[in-house]
Design brief:
Blueprint (H helix, E strand, L loop, with lengths): L2 H32 L1 E13 L2 E12 L2 H21 L7 E3 L3 E4 L13 E11 L2 H8 L3 H5 L15 E3 L3 H26 L3 E10 L3 E4 L7 E15 L1
Antiparallel strand pairs: 1-9, 2-5, 2-6, 3-5, 4-5, 7-9, 8-9
Length: 234
């Protein structure tokens, strides 16, 4: 018998044996890469607003336009005194030009009691949130001066409390969200008698900032969710 053929046959047999051994190993390794778990990690924090925008709106009505304008100027002066007494600076106050409407010039609504209605808006924009909250609670002082702040205008000139320090919070919040996601994945792996592997993919949701509740708009809730997929192995 040709020894070359014998050796060739032996080589083929050895190759088949090695292949038979390696195929299950390769299959198991491939399967380990197809077993994954998807988890989400949440991080929420309550923070205080660091900026306040407070429009103070009032109206003056009358039939004599110069007199109405004089009343607006006098009341504007009293509002400014009220704000400065409360610690608000000139740089944090802006006075809009009066908005005057002539009811007699309208096609409809000529049954109004007064011809002219003048609306004045004085806006406070400041980082002194606590002082704004304090002054908002003292608006009765303006009423004593004959200035009725028009709350019905809040839809057009709303008071806003903002939080602008998000960039400082982002790193620690993302870290916490990722940690929470990993803890959830570890629990899942343990319950399924698996080992948690490396991250396959991860995505960070957008940050959201909203009022904690309707009664305290100066307290904000910051929220972020991280979505992570981990590999699992036996």
């Amino acid at each position: 018998m040709d020894k070359g053929k014998i050796y060739a046959g032996i080589s083929v047999m050895i190759g088949l044996i090695v292949m038979g051994i390696m195929i299950p190993v390769a299959v198991n390794k491939y399967m380990s890469y197809t077993r994954t778990v998807d988890v989400k990690g949440l991080c929420e924090r309550e923070v205080k607003a660091d900026k306040a925008i407070w429009p103070i709106v009032f109206k003056v009505m009358g039939d004599d336009l110069p007199a109405v304008n004089a009343q607006v100027e006098a009341k504007n002066k009293k509002v400014l005194e009220f704000l400065k007494k409360g610690g608000i600076t000139d740089a944090e106050i802006s006075v809009s030009a009066p908005n005057v409407s002539d009811k007699f010039a309208n096609e409809y609504g000529n049954d109004r009691l007064y011809r002219y209605v003048c609306k004045s808006v004085i806006t406070v924009c400041t980082n002194q949130v606590d002082k704004v909250i304090e002054l908002m609670g003292k608006q009765a002082e303006l009423i004593k001066e004959g200035i009725v702040v028009n709350a019905s205008e809040s839809w057009e000139n709303p008071t806003e409390f903002k939080f602008e320090g998000l960039n400082e919070l982002k790193p620690s919040m993302v870290e916490e969200a990722t940690k929470n996601a990993r803890e959830t994945a570890l629990k899942f792996a343990k319950d399924s008698e698996s080992e948690l592997g490396k991250i396959k993919r991860a995505s960070q949701g957008s940050f959201s900032i909203e009022n904690r509740d309707s009664n305290t708009p100066h307290i904000k809730r910051v929220r972020v969710v991280s979505s992570i997929t981990y590999y699992l192995s036996n």
